[in-house]
Design brief:
This protein has 328 residues and is mainly beta. The chain has 5 helices and 21 strands. The chain has a single domain, classed as Beta-galactosidase, Chain A, domain 5 (Distorted Sandwich), CATH 2.70.98. The strands form 3 sheets. The chain has a 9-stranded antiparallel beta sheet with strand order 8-9-10-11-21-18-17-13-14, covered by helices on one side. Strands 7-6-12-20-19-15-16 form a 7-stranded mixed beta sheet.
Length: 328
């Protein structure tokens, strides 16, 4: 592994690593050991909606959680299945947002060329509501894995969800990745990825069919090496990615063809080494964030942040501005 990738695991939690076992929220809010120390300075993002309290999740009888933010309503881990947000509806328009496999859930988990099972969305989970209305989720694979995986889902405001991913290594985990997946309603057919255009600078690039079937924009050369280290040849459903220009920032967008609704997923640059999507109109209607991408020593921890934002009438410049404020 290159020195640049090894360096990305050097962030240290000021409250100490043992907090992971008891209270992921407190540890990560304080700055859980991230893949890059730079991630520790990422703020909770712009509070454009003023001091109103953030929406909360409410437990459901089936083991999942309901939410109604006033703008969005739906479920988290409905039926106890780890699919993130499902059944999501934009209340002012009645437009559905989420596909059947949900938004913002860990899917494929890798360490180097090793893949752990078919996908974390099929693993059993345990969860609880935290004092501020967020939900902490713990994955319980049906087989032995050399790590513990947890997440916190928290509403930042009525249209913005933050997800905090935490990993504790039991054994050494080289080039560890959590592939965070979001599947949107079929109306959100056109995907865009925020890349460095060689002529015009940063731009949201439309994932057209002519570019390839499965499209991935890497952060840098070290990210390309990980993408091509054999992890995506593992069964089931191996993927042959077509590489796009490098990221201007880990941001991906889908626009609804029936309204002016826009779905945006993003992450701090230090926490996400690639962003991917199928081409426009392909039936998955998905966006993916490749989180972490660092070596985690046995007994060590790493974490990453990601965000889902639903907006109305957002221009490309608006989205870039939202991302800049998020990462300031």
């Amino acid at each position: 592994m290159s020195n640049s990738m090894t360096d990305r695991q050097q962030g240290v939690s000021p409250e100490g690593i043992p907090a992971f076992g008891n209270h992921l929220l407190r540890a990560m809010s304080a700055g859980l050991a991230l893949c890059a120390a730079a991630s520790l300075v990422v703020a909770r993002a712009d509070d454009t909606d003023g001091p109103a309290p953030a929406p909360a999740f409410t437990p459901s009888d089936d083991g999942g959680y309901a939410f109604d933010t006033g703008v969005l309503e739906g479920r988290l881990n409905a039926g106890g299945r780890a699919l993130g947000l499902t059944g999501v509806v934009h209340k002012p328009t009645g437009r559905p947002l989420a596909g059947g496999l949900g938004l913002m859930h860990p899917y494929r988990i890798f360490s180097g060329s090793r893949r752990f099972g078919d996908g974390a969305r099929d693993w059993k989970t345990a969860s609880r509501v935290l004092d501020d209305g967020a939900v902490e989720v713990r994955w319980e694979p049906p087989f032995d894995v050399p790590f513990e995986l947890r997440a916190v889902y928290r509403w930042h405001n009525a249209t913005t969800l933050d997800v905090l991913i935490g990993v504790r290594a039991v054994d050494e985990l080289p080039a560890f990745e959590v592939f965070l997946a979001s599947y949107f309603d079929a109306g959100f057919a056109e995907p865009f990825v925020y890349v460095e255009d060689p002529d015009d600078g940063p731009a949201l690039l439309l994932g057209e069919r002519a570019l390839g079937h499965w499209l991935m924009a890497p952060r840098d050369d070290a990210a390309v090496a990980m993408i091509q280290d054999g992890r995506w040849r593992a069964q089931p459903h191996p993927v042959d990615w077509t590489l796009l220009p490098p990221l201007a920032g880990p941001v991906a967008v889908r626009r609804d063809r029936h309204s002016d609704l826009v779905a945006v997923v993003m992450a701090p640059e230090a926490d996400c080494f690639a962003v991917s999507t199928p081409y426009a109109g392909e039936g998955h209607y998905s966006l993916y964030l490749s989180l972490l991408g660092c070596d985690i020593a046995a007994g060590g921890q790493a974490g990453a942040r990601a965000r889902l934002m639903i907006g109305t009438g957002l221009t490309d410049a608006d989205i870039a501005d939202h991302y800049r404020r998020y990462t300031q």
